[in-house]
Design goal:
heterodimer; A: 10 residues; little secondary structure; B: 215 residues; mainly alpha; signal (chain B); ER lumen protein-retaining receptor (chain B); membrane (chain B); ER retention sequence binding (chain B)
Chain lengths: 10, 215
């Protein structure tokens, strides 16, 4: 599965 | 959400509110760089595109909307408000946008995590945010006399990224959450740009004198 970078900061 | 991240977000929020308060109540934007404000509007517009695609939390979405709304209102005030715009010192605020935007765009095309439109814009916004304060710092240096609210605005903005760095360290140790090195470098550069300002800010605070930057 492809790891999509998720940006959980502002 | 840890205490450093929360404190970072709150100082960031406070910085924007201080600036809006100054502009809205005093009806003056003296000492405020429109160039920096336009760059921030661009930073938020390119970074927060993900409000349409990803949901992280209500807090996250609300904060994003606040930062987008406030940055565009500040730009609107300085450009369009019939009283505020008169206090804008165009002659002193001469920094060129493209001087910062183009290198950041190129750097994002060269150094990024993933080659997608959203990811490239996000990376661009990280690079641009790191240097967006420069026109404001140059303006402060030129005008030298810094009013309290403008000084507090810049201080809070600098405090925000410093707290984010503590947050990244904390997240690394507690959650094994790795922030990409691009973010680290940009965040460190951003914080270092404030070092000089912080020095004079604390000196003036310690000696209880008005903040003035050396010529």
């Amino acid at each position: 599965k492809e790891k999509v970078p998720q940006h959980d900061e502002l | 959400m840890n205490i450093f991240r929360l404190a970072g977000d709150m100082t960031h929020l406070a910085s924007v509110l201080v600036l809006l308060l100054k502009i809205h109540t005093i009806k003056s934007c003296a000492g405020v760089s429109l160039k920096t404000q336009e760059l921030y509007a661009l930073v938020f517009a390119t970074r927060y595109l993900d409000i349409f695609t990803d949901f992280i939390s209500v807090y996250n979405t609300v904060m994003k909307l606040i930062f987008l709304g406030s940055s565009f209102s500040i730009v609107w005030y300085i450009r369009r408000h019939k009283i505020v715009r008169r206090s804008y010192d165009k002659e002193q605020d001469t920094f060129r946008h493209y001087f910062l935007v183009l290198p950041c765009l190129l750097l994002a095309l060269l150094i990024h995590e993933k080659f997608t439109v959203k990811e490239l814009l996000w990376t661009f916004s990280i690079y641009l945010e790191a240097v967006a304060i420069l026109p404001q710092l140059v303006l402060l240096q030129r005008t030298r006399n810094i009013d309290n609210l403008t000084g507090q605005y810049v201080f809070l903005l600098g405090a925000y990224r410093s707290l984010y760095i503590l947050n990244w360290i904390y997240r690394y140790f507690t959650e094994r959450h790795f922030v990409h090195w691009i973010t680290w470098i940009a965040g460190l550069v951003q914080t270092l740009l404030y070092a000089d300002f912080f020095y004079y800010y604390f000196e003036s605070w310690k000696n209880n004198v008005k903040l003035q930057l050396p010529a």
